[in-house]
Amino acid sequence: MSSIKSVLLVGVGGQGTILASNVLSKGLVEAGYDVKMSEVHGMAQRGGSVTTQIRFGEKVYSPIIGRGEADILVSFELMEALRLIEFLKPGGKVIVNNQQIPSAPILAGRVDYPEGILEELQLKADTKAIDAVGIAKELGNEKAMNIVLFGALSKVLELDNIDWEDVIRNTVKEKFIDLNINAYRAGRNI
Predict the structure, then answer these.
(1) 49-57 and 126-130 as β-strands: parallel, antiparallel, unpaired?
(2) Would you place residue 129 in the very low, low, confident or very high pLDDT band (cuts 50, 70, 90)?
(3) What is the pLDDT of residue 101?
(4) How many CA atoms, within 13 angstroms, populate the side-chain half-sphere of residue 73?
(5) Is pLDDT of 99 > 60?
(6) Antiparallel, parallel or unpaired: β 49-57 and 34-40
(7) What phi, psi does 136 have (nearest 5°)?
(8) Which intervals hold domain Pyruvate/ketoisovalerate oxidoreductase catalytic (predicted)?
(9) pTM to 2 decimals?
């Protein structure tokens, strides 16, 4: 637990970014890490950006991740990954859901959704694209895509000493436990 790790989770309102961040933070705290979390979700309920910064280690003084400091960027939407890639450190990893959610200017027809985002991400960082929505749909509810992405993140973090399934059980509503456990397992197996 000597070095500090920084994880940036980004998405669009309604994608479950905050829930995934809460699962991660709870598991880390239970494992004995000092954890600091900061979230920004200004217009999230209207489809705006959601950003969560989580830093953990032996002793963490601030939750804020500066440009070029994130070890891992987990993006629930393609354009959000590209928008915040500058926060990833050299040699950092990107886990990205391959979903495209048009922003308000795109929906209004003022601009087009950018093309080639995944290719650009792959040029800038070690990037793993996941069809998290498709996997979650196969499990019965596309909203579980956040926990599919969390499962992939938990594998990259290599924190196998944490019982993530128990953390999920104690975090999500009872009626969604089985769905989220299955989503977690699917994400781990990617």
Answers:
(1) unpaired
(2) very high
(3) 85
(4) 36
(5) yes
(6) antiparallel
(7) -65, -40
(8) 13-188
(9) 0.93
Specify the CATH class of 5-109+119-188 in words.
Answer: alpha beta
CA atoms of 98 and 135, how far apart (whole Å):
11
Distance between CA atoms of residues 136 and 71, nearest Å: 26
How many residues does the structure list for the chain? Answer: 190
Name the residue type at position 61: Y
- Characterize 84-95 residue by residue with b for buried, 16 or more Cβ atoms within 10 angstroms of its Cβ, and e for exposed: bbebbbeebbbb
User: Residue ranges of the domains in the chain?
Assistant: 5-109+119-188
Tell which residue, 190, 5, 2, has the closest CA to residue 88. 5
Amino acid at 56: F
Residue range 47-78, pLDDT digits in tens = 678 899 999 999 999 999 999 999 999 999 99
Return the pLDDT at 127.
98
* Type of residue numbered 65: I
> What is the pLDDT averaged over residues 29-58?
85
Task: Please name the residues in contact with 160: beta carbons below 8 A apart, sequence gap of 6 or more.
Answer: none
Whole-angstrom Cα distance, residue 150 to residue 156?
10
pLDDT at 124: 96
Three-state DSSP at 68 gives: coil
Name the β-bridge partners of 37: 54
- Residue 96, both tokens: 């990205």
